Amino acid sequence: MPSHSHLANGIKVQGSLTNLESSVTYGHEIRCVSSKRYSFPLHNVAINSHGVKCVSAQNVDHIRTTLSNNVIQFQSNAYWWFTVVTTRGLRDASRWTVGTRQSRGHTQDTVAIESFTDGCWKDVFAHDKKGIRICGSREALVSALMSGHRVRFQIPEWNYYTAETDNLSVRLRRLNSKCKIL
Fold first, then answer.
1. Which residues of the chain have pLDDT under 50?
2. What's the pTM value of the predicted model, to 2 decimals?
3. Strands (E), the chain
């Protein structure tokens, strides 16, 4: 069952916006389904608390495909498709040719979406604005990284902005002949 679903006009069909917002604050992964046939992850998620409350998010790594003779394949002139969606039904999409910075168009419309959350993520390290540990440890974070786990970060002060990281590296520093993690 979806955590939250809405019609193209933003009217809730199922679930609870409060529960979806709670999943955002806990940093859960969120995937959406539109038209009962297309599933996509949300890479950057935030709670919009200005005016009417909603959750807004981006998908930033879709390359357009086409269906031909019941086979899904990349279009001959493929393009990146960057999308912003909200729980109010709004969708903003920008398309750019793969390999160049040539715009392929920009559209704004509305879409019905079902949102599904995955609560398998766990906190391994948190710090305050000064870098002082709140919970977990840097060692646990480094261990997770070096074990191949995916990592998400969250900035609560920015409307619980949450994103999955990519291409991470660990930098070690030597102090008093002991190896410390920055």
1. 175-182
2. 0.73
3. 4-6, 12-15, 29-34, 38-41, 44-48, 54-63, 65-68, 71-74, 79-86, 90-97, 103-110, 113-118, 125-127, 133-136, 152-155, 161-164, 172-175, 178-181
On the CB side of 108, CA atoms within 13 Å amount to: 2
**Three-class SS of residue 35?**
coil
Token output for 117: 């959350």
59, 163 contact by CB (below 8 A): no
Given CA atoms 141, 59, 120, 130 in this order, what sign does their dihedral have? Answer: positive
Q: How many angstroms separate the CA atoms of 136 and 116, rounded?
A: 27
Distance CA 116, CA 83 (A): 17
Tokens of 177: 């002949």
Calculated CA dihedral for residues 139, 140, 146, 151, nearest 10 degrees: -120
Q: How far is CA 54 from CA 17, 36, 78, 123, 131, in A?
A: 8, 22, 32, 24, 30
